[in-house]
Amino acid sequence: MTSPVKPISIGPFTAPNNIWLAPMAGVTDGPFRALCLRGGAGVVCAEMVSAHALHYANPRSLRMLRIDEREKPVSMQIFGSDEQTICEAARAAEARGADIIDINAGCPVKKINKAGAGCVLMKDPAHLGRLVEAAVKAVKVPVTLKSRIALKRGVLLGPEIARVAQEAGAAAVIMHARAAEDVHSGEPNLDALAQVCQAVKIPVIGNGGIHDGKTAQAFFDAGCAGIMIGRAAVGNPFIFTDIQQELAGRQPAPLDKRRRVEIYLALIEENIARYGEKIGLGRSKKTAGYWLRDFPNAAEVRGRFVRMETLVDIRALFKSLVF
Ligand SMILES: Cc1cc2nc3c(=O)[nH]c(=O)nc-3n(C[C@H](O)[C@H](O)[C@H](O)COP(=O)(O)O)c2cc1C
Asked: How confident is the model at residue 295, as a pLDDT?
């Protein structure tokens, strides 16, 4: 069987491969994106940025648009509810070097939904189509839409959303194969995803629960042109290469605990270099559960780690874990 891993064209942009890093707020910042590219991701997606906050030149949101060359190709995701701010945000992300602009129409977080953005956009496909069309007209880089197969389990919306996005000029659709009410848990619904793939000609990039070659293959079998990996990349940024190997019939070497701790320490150091000790450490600690696991006393180690405030202490703790 030939491997489904190959370059993928998203409008005028061609990515080196079709296994991408999913956008994750609080996780997929610059240092983590660079790490995943080294781990074989075809494209890395940034944390969602508020179009409204960019409109008001919020310094934190503006900082989130920072891209450096080690983090490309990158897709910048924006969220919002009106055409004007979506256009402004798309232009701002393009000006900073985004290869792709992605619009979020899948986030189930209440605060985002209350502002009319994220998955609630699925309730009004015509409005969603206008947002996509406005962004497409505002920038030269391709625009994609990330959405979900449904708001509620059993009430399929994905095919219609994908068709609307295609008609509005989106270059691809990213489809999380879970209903919004399921947030990030439960099995992905691959039958529903297959219906999305059949509904449109533009590439569909499938997402939800992919963690190895077998789960990845199931998404390609459903008709996806590409796949996107979220949580399984946290704690193993080499999952992109591992899956490529598995799909080519080879068995990747598992990432051992010692190497995982070394990679985590390097990431913490990058975060501190980029954001300063306080913010860099704060960001790093959020994902401790993914990195510091499989040790006999992992919970206790994580407890000690999250109370630490200096890199010197953290280096000593990590050294005691791996030597
Ligand atoms: C911590 C976290 C943050 C997330 N933030 C975003 C986001 O900013 N934008 C988005 O479209 N999806 C976001 N997601 C959803 C992921 O992109 C992805 O769709 C979801 O995790 C399912 O993929 P997975 O099962 O491979 O993790 C987030 C998920 C997690 C766990």
From this structure: 84
Total residues belonging to the chain: 323
Rounded to an integer, the average pLDDT of 263-279 is 94
Q: E strand or H helix at 237, and its extent? A: none
- Kindly give the distance from the C-alpha atom of residue 112 to the centroid of ligand 1, in angstroms, as a whole number: 14
Taking only the tens place, the pLDDT of each residue in 183-240 is 999 999 999 999 999 999 999 999 999 999 999 999 999 999 999 999 999 999 999 9
Residue 209 CA, closest ligand 1 atom number: 25
230 C-alpha to center of ligand 1: Å?
6
- Ligand 1 pocket (Cβ < 6 Å) reads 22-27, 47-48, 77, 104, 106-107, 146, 176, 184, 207-210, 229-232
CA gap 178, 16 in Å, rounded: 27
**Other C-beta atoms lying within 10 Å of the C-beta of residue 173:** 28
- The structure tokens 């010692």 sit at 258
Ligand 1 atom at minimal distance to the Cα of residue 23: 17
Nearest residue by C-alpha to atom 10 in ligand 1: 23
224 labelled catalytic = no
Radius of gyration in angstroms for the set of CA atoms belonging to the chain, rounded to a whole number: 19
125-138 vs 83-95: helix crossing angle, rounded to 10: 40
What is the model's pTM? 0.97
Atom of ligand 1 nearest to the CA of 207: 23
Q: Which burial class, exposed, middle or buried, applies to 285 when counting CB atoms under 10 A from its CB (0-12, 13-18, 19+)?
A: middle
149 vs 238: CA distance, rounded Å: 28
Burial class (CB in 10 A: 0-12, 13-18, 19+), 100: buried
| Contact of 204 with 197, CB cutoff 8 Å | yes
